[in-house]
From TrEMBL:
Gene3D superfamilies: 3.40.50.2300, 6.10.250.690, Winged helix-like DNA-binding domain superfamily/Winged helix DNA-binding domain. Signal peptide: none annotated. One of its GO terms (molecular function) is transcription cis-regulatory region binding. May play the central regulatory role in sporulation. It may be an element of the effector pathway responsible for the activation of sporulation genes in response to nutritional stress. Spo0A may act in concert with spo0H (a sigma factor) to control the expression of some genes that are critical to the sporulation process. Pfam families: Response_reg (PF00072), Trans_reg_C (PF00486). This is Stage 0 sporulation protein A homolog. Residues 125-223 form the OmpR/PhoB-type domain. Residues 125-223 bind DNA.
Amino acid sequence: MKKKVLIIEDEKQIARFLQLEFEHEGYIVAIEYNGHSGLKNALENNYDLIILDIMLPGLNGIEVLKKIRETSDMPVIMLTAKDEVKDKVTGLDTGADDYLTKPFSIEELFARVRAALRKKGKINPDILQYNDIVMDLLKYEVIRDGKVIELTKKEFDLLKYLILNKNIVLSREQILENVWGYNYFGETNVVDVYIRYLRSKIDDPFDKKLIQTVRGVGYTLRDENNET
């Protein structure tokens, strides 16, 4: 099941950027642009995580967080343009799970998001997800867009390796070593063959293609329609 994120951020360009990045990672995203509407949305809906700017019109982020913490322990990561220690201390003392100062790297934000979700027990380490693909490592089950995809063990292992290295271009040698093992002495084109098998099940039946070929290099798992 996809995680739901509420972004409370009055700078619309930043809010839109965060929305695209979170949706690219498979989250369901809602946006509010001021403290009052953000607080109302947060209290009326069940979100897995809130990204909360400290400088908001209406109610500021600290006030919003105080109200949220009266009834909920949902993970909250605060954002601010300020880099003052007192703001960080106030946010954390009020109940924020983490704190990032603008500008920040999206990779760092997602690392903190994962840490916050793990802390609250909202990430299952046996579930991998990318875009609309969900892998259950214990059940050996793959679901894309709500449909169960039947994979062989090797296809499953290949998809797992691609998801764990999403948006990274992997050479055939890297895939061969990590999926088939260092001692594999079979056909050298086995990676291409299994990528083709996997595409026929994971990509071909769907409009959005996720397994990309980088000519002369190898393969990567990314959304060609939502590159950043």
